[in-house]
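Dig into these lines:

——
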Amino acid sequence: MRVVLAPAPFKAALGPADAAAAMAAGARLAGADAVEVPVADGGEGTLEALVSAAGGHMVDAPARDPLGRPITAALGLLPDGTAVVELARASGYERVADGERDPEATSTAGTGDLIVAALDRGCRRVIVGAGGSATTDGALGIVVALGARALDPHGVPLPGTGGALSQVRAIDLSGLDPRLAGTRIEVACDVTSPLTGPDGAARVFGPQKGASPDAVDRLDAGLANLAAVLAGQGLPDVALLPRAGAAGGAAGGMAAMLGATLTGGGALVTHAAGLDAALEHADLCITGEGRLDAQTLTGKAPAAVAAACARAGVPCVGLFGQVDVPPGVARQMGLLAALPIGRAVRALPDALAATADDLAAATASVVTLVGSRP
């Protein structure tokens, strides 16, 4: 059997490349030929998945964390000249301590720094993984870092923070880095949320980033203000654009101000990772991630893998740390089966530590079972 292993990250346990390696060990134990294609959906693991799948490499570049402090963050360089910028590397939730989380004070400027670093290295295609942000700034930080200016009612430049959104009366893009004119920016979005409203960036994700109820109201109104200002300047109206709410509205802001295209992260990453080619001669594909739940159905990596398998006519099985969907949902996703990998009742730290071994064992069992079918 030829088996393609295409897992997303198992959060807090394994990145996509390590998860694929564990699965491959189990597949080989069962006598199969294993092909590793680690994937992600725009959030955690996107950089690792694309660099691993494409044979690229990572470099460190100076940047700023969400509060403007100097840091060093990684970006990926692929053999075809594409750069991969994972927004969470500089502007992510884990860059700020619990007591520092405040989406009115944080900024995506560090992600803009990484885009500049990509341009400095000659890259003219940039994939931005828009997940895991500590920010709700509508990409103000990114575009200011790239040379634009956000102006208040008196024409005074504003900082690129969430708290500045409501004060914006104009966006001056004349100072944008001229290299952007010849650069294609693709945003891999891990959610389908619009920019504003009850399902928008501030109301759905603001509280987990540290926003109080009043701050959520201000941020939602600020994002609506930014969208109105941009539309008033003749730029695309992204107020209700699907996926514009990813990364605290950074996806929508990049679409309007940088001409970025917004794509479901799972589909973009699986395609860029070469999954379709890997499936051409496959007998089975195994995907998975830490948790299968309702969000997985909305374009997350395992759903994108299952869709690719359906197109290729390859059966697909999902292995998960936890399965939290009703019976039948896995089949609706296109999975032959969705199985939890745990082999014992363990405390969470012990279960996380055993993820690699459990993945290998579960993969060996699936390959043996599927391989025994007539």
Remarks:
- The radius of gyration is 21 Å.
- The chain has two domains: 2-39+274-371, 46-266.
- The chain has a mean pLDDT of 95.
